[in-house]
Amino acid sequence: MQIPLFxxxxxxxxxxxxxxxxxxxxxxxxxxxxxxxxxxxxxxGFYTAFLNLAKSLExxxxxxxxxxxAFARTNPNLPVGMSGYLPPFGQSGLKNPxxxxxxxxxxPTELGALQAQLxxxxxxYPSEWPKELAAKDMPITYAAMFVGIDTDEWPxxxxxxxxxxxxxxxxxxxxxxERAQDLLAxxxxxxxxxxxxxxxxxxxxxxxxxxxxxxRESRALIFCTEHETQGLACQEAMAAxxxxxxxxxxxxxxxxxxxxxxxxxxxxxVPYFDARCGLTFRISTLEEQLDRFMAARDSYRPRDYVxxxxxxxxxxxxxLTLYESLLS
Length: 328
Hints:
This protein is an alpha/beta fold. It has helices at residues 20-37, 45-59, 69-74, 108-115, 176-193, 208-216, 232-239, 255-258, 286-296, 302-309, 312-324, and strands at 2-8, 63-66, 80-84, 97-103, 119-125, 141-144, 164-170, 198-202, 218-224, 244-247, 278-281. Helix 2 crosses helix 11.
C-alpha cells in the first residue's frame, strides 16, 4: 500500500505549498545538525515516534509518502495518518479520513474545533491511561497505539563493558525544586550508602549517541519522570536489556492534563512494563524498593518484553489494524 503520513512539529514542518516538501526536509536537516553540534536533544520524542512508525511500515513493504498534500488530495478516500501538532492541518482542506497519532495528547477542546475542519475518524493515544483524557461525547474512535522500538538499533547490551551501576535519567518537568529535595537528593544518598556508582543525564541536554553510550555502560537505568504516555527513552534501554528502576508516583503533574482529567485517573511513568523489566517505586517506598531491585537486578530480562510487545513489527501491525478499518 501507499500510505500518506503527515507530521507537523518542531522537527518537521508540513508545508502545504509548491516546493514545500524539499524545504521542509532541508529545514529538518539543518535543525538536526544545529542541535547535535550543541549537544542538545536533536529530535523530539514525537518525531522519533513518527520516524519509527514510518520505518516499521516500510519494513513491512509499504510505501510511505510523508507530507505529500498533492497525493492526499488526489486520493480523497484514502485514509491519512497525521502526527505531531494537529491544528495546522485544519487549514489544509484535506477531506481524507484521518487517523491521528503518534503525537501529543490532544486537548478535547482542540479536537472539537478541528472536527469541523478535518475528517477525524480515529484519535490514538500512546497507551491506555491517556485515553481517559479524551472527550467522550465526540463522534471519534479513541484507541491506544504505541510506536515500535527499533531493536536492531538498540541491540542487547547486557554483555557490554559496564562502568557504573546505574544511569540516572532525569526527565522531571514540573516542580523541579521540590523533586530535587524529596526525590533526587534521597535517591543519590541511598546509592552512596550502598556504594553504588552512577552517571546522570538530564532530558534535553544530550545527544542520542551520548544516551546510547551511557546505556551501554550502565548495569541498570533509574528513570525519573512524573508520567509518560509511552516513554521511548526508557523502552530503548529495555530493548538494550538494561533493567529499569522507575519512579512511578501515579499522580498527574501536567497542569493542562489535570484540568481535564477524571479525579480517579492514575497515570504511569512506565505504561508498558512487567516483572521482566525491573521494578517501580514511589518516594515513600524508595529505599525498600531499591534493595529489592538490587537483589533481583541480574535476573531481569526487559528485552524479552520489548521483543514480544513493542518491536517495530508489532507497532506497524497495530497501526495497520486501525488504518485498514478506515479503508472503504
